[in-house]
Amino acid sequence: MKSGFLEKLVARLDRVVPGDVQQIVTRLIREKGFLEKVFEALHEGVIILDPNGVIGFLNHAACQFFGLDPEQAPGEEISTQIRGLDWESLGKPGRTVSRDLEVFYPENRFLNFYLAPIDDADDPGAPLGYVMLVRDLTTTRAEAEETLESERLNALTLLAAGVAHEIGNPLNSLDIHLQLLGRKLKKLPPGDRKPLEENLSTAREEIQRLDQILKQFLHAVRPTTPHRERKDLHVILNETLKLLEPELASRQIAVQLDLAESMPLAMIDPGQFQQVFYNLIRNAYQAIPCEKGRITIRTRVSDFEYIISIEDNGTGISPEHMGAIFEPYRTTKSSGSGLGLLIVRRIIREHGGEIAIESEENQGTRVLIHLPHADRPVRLLAAPETDPVIDL
């Protein structure tokens, strides 16, 4: 970095008395130490660069953001230390840059950096160097996404009442009129009645499908309060498997159970958790394209939570679909409503838990449910067996 002030000072040293030189040097040392302490106290990253993009100074926050060594990074070009930064396109005299950057090491963070030139008063066209200020937007971005999700659900909730009225009532009316048509068809000769009855049956099935989608939509957007009871998760899981047994058998899909030997009763809404298991197991076998698939269900319990894993060997989920997997009406199935996982996540979150999904294309998908205990045990440190003896 061009010294500027120091070059001018050296040129005039012969005119400065020794006492003044000592005061100037002492003042520079104090100011340097003070500024370094200020920079180290900042939560934002600070990187000082020379005109060629060589690092002259960086604070502790910058080292944490980018995983840099504070001893080795100074003196190195920033392009070699931070992946994705091209100094040739960034370091332009007189130009200020603000840019978002996602880094994956040492942690996955969303950062924003501001790069500004340090102008030389005597030569504005040739900056003394550059200062880069780096902010961590990871938490802010997560909060913004949560706010956006909340606003989206609130908007859907407001629409729910209108949807129920504008679609639900006409569906009921259509169903009643189709029942009347069915009674009149019975009076026709059998030859004329059969094709009309097939069309009528198709129309009624479609009305029932629309009614089911409407109910799922309303359940997904309306806030609900779980009616909790102490229930055995294994019992609810086995009851759900019994309901799905015919579909699993028809597809020749084997279900392997690896259940915890001792599972304490959980404070849950049994109806809602049966819906969770039903949706997840159904998603699992529908993701298996051919017969003789496999679904593995595991349960574990720790001091703080229940862990339930449902894993299949199906087609998996592509990276582009993983990012929008919980968005309403996003589905890869031709007959799906795209509301199943949204409902599942809402139920689990209303019970204080979280859901995680791991998937690899053409390998399969694993869904993990983390459900906290209603009453977490208090772990106390054991008292020492004997007090230490101190000789005086």
Please write out the topology:
Elements: H1 5-11, H2 18-41, E1 45-49, E2 55-58, H3 60-66, H4 78-81, H5 87-90, E3 97-103, E4 109-118, E5 129-136, H6 138-185, H7 190-221, E6 229-231, H8 233-250, E7 254-258, E8 266-268, H9 270-286, E9 294-301, E10 305-312, H10 319-322, H11 340-350, E11 354-360, E12 364-372
Parallel strand pairs: 7-9
Antiparallel strand pairs: 1-2, 1-5, 3-4, 4-5, 6-8, 9-10, 10-12, 11-12
Helix pairs in contact: 6-7, 7-11, 8-9, 9-11
Task: Sum up the structure in keywords.
alpha+beta, five-stranded antiparallel sheet, 12 strands, five-stranded mixed sheet, Beta-Lactamase, 392 residues, Helix Hairpins, 11 helices, Heat Shock Protein 90, 3 domains, disordered C terminus
In short:
The chain is an alpha+beta fold. It contains 11 helices and 12 strands.
Describe the structure.
This protein has 392 residues and is α+β, with helices and mostly antiparallel strands. The chain has 3 domains: 5-136, PAS domain (Beta-Lactamase, 2-Layer Sandwich), CATH 3.30.450.20; 142-221, Helix Hairpins, CATH 1.10.287; 229-372, 2-Layer Sandwich (Heat Shock Protein 90). It is 45% helix and 20% strand. It is built from 11 helices and 12 strands. The chain has helices at 5-11, 18-41, 60-66, 78-81, 87-90, 138-185, 190-221, 233-250, 270-286, 319-322, 340-350; strands spanning 45-49, 55-58, 97-103, 109-118, 129-136, 229-231, 254-258, 266-268, 294-301, 305-312, 354-360, 364-372. A 5-stranded antiparallel sheet has the order 2-1-5-4-3. A 5-stranded mixed sheet has the order 7-9-10-12-11, with helices on one face. A two-stranded antiparallel ribbon has the order 6-8. Strand 1 (45-49) and strand 2 (55-58) form a beta hairpin. Helix 6 (138-185) packs antiparallel against helix 7 and helix 8 (233-250) runs parallel beside helix 9. The chain is elongated and about 120 Å long. The two termini are 63 Å apart. Mean pLDDT is 78; it is low at 376-384 and 386-392.
